Amino acid sequence: MTFDKYIKNVPDFPKPGIQFKDITPLIGDGEAFKAAIKVMATFAKEQKADVIVGPDARGFIFGTPVAYELGIGFIPVRKPGKLPRETISMSYALEYGENTLAMHKDDILPGQRVVIVDDLLATGGTVEATIKLIESVGAKVVGCIFLIELDFLAGREKLHHIPILSLLHY
Ligand code: AMP
C-alpha cells in the first residue's frame, strides 16, 4: 500500500515556513492505519523488541497498536507534569519551539531492547532526547520507527548506528 495519499501537507502551520504533515487522514482510514501498523510491527519484531516507547502525543497513536500487535508493553514518554510517579526528564529543541520529555524512572528495565515509535522524524531532537532517557536507565534502543521522515532536516544523523524504518520520505 502507498501511504502518501493519506498525508495532507498544511503550509505555514503552526508557524510561517513550516510544512506541517497531517497524519489524521491516514489514521482515519481503517485499512491504511492497519497496513501502516503491520509494517511497523514487522520491523519491531525483527529487532526483537521487548518494549515499545512512544513520545507524547502522536507517538502514542502509532506506538500502542504496534505493541498490542506484538503482545509487548508500551511505555509513554510524556510532557512534564503528566506522569504521577518519579520521573527522569530531558529538554531539547524542536523544528519549531522547544520541549521537555519525561519518563517514569522504573518503567523500563536495564538491558531491555527498546523500539521507539513516532509519527515523524524532523530534526531528530525528540527521538534523541527519548534515546537519552532510555539509555540513562540502562536499556538499549534497537530500532526507531517513523511514519514520516523529513530527509532535508537530516534527523537520522542523530541516530548513528540505530536501525531506522520510515514508511514515507519527504
Ligand atoms: P523533531 O524533534 O524535530 O524530530 O520533531 C519531531 C516531532 O515534532 C514529531 O513527533 C512530530 O510530531 C512533530 N513535527 C515536527 N515537524 C513536523 C512537521 N513538519 N509536520 C508534522 N509534525 C511535525
Low-confidence stretches: none
Number of strands: 9
**How many domains, in number, for the residues?**
1
What would you say the CATH architecture is? 3-Layer(aba) Sandwich
Can you list the strand order of the major beta sheet?
4-3-7-8-9
**What characterizes the major β-sheet?**
5 strands, parallel
In angstroms, what separates the terminal alpha carbons? 17 Å
The CATH C-level name is Alpha Beta
Count of alpha/pi helices: 4
Percent strand? 25-35%
Query: Given the helix and strand composition, which structural class is it?
Result: alpha/beta
Task: Give a written overview of the molecule.
The protein has 170 residues and is an alpha/beta fold. It has one domain: 3-Layer(aba) Sandwich (Rossmann fold), CATH 3.40.50.2020. It is 27% helix and 34% strand. It contains four helices and nine strands; from the N terminus they run E-E-H-H-E-H-E-E-E-E-H-E-E. It has helices spanning 24-27, 30-46, 58-70, 125-136; strands spanning 8-11, 19-22, 51-55, 73-77, 87-93, 98-104, 113-121, 140-149, 164-169. The strands form three sheets. A five-stranded parallel beta sheet has the order 4-3-7-8-9, with helices on both faces. Strands 1-2 form a two-stranded antiparallel sheet. The longest helix is centred in the N-terminal third of the chain and has 17 residues, at 30-46. It is globular, with a radius of gyration of 15 Å. The two termini are 17 Å apart. The relative contact order is 0.17. The mean pLDDT is 96. It binds adenosine monophosphate. Adenosine monophosphate (AMP) binds at residues 18-21, 58, 94-95, 118-126, 155. Adenosine monophosphate binds next to strand 2, strand 7 and helix 4.
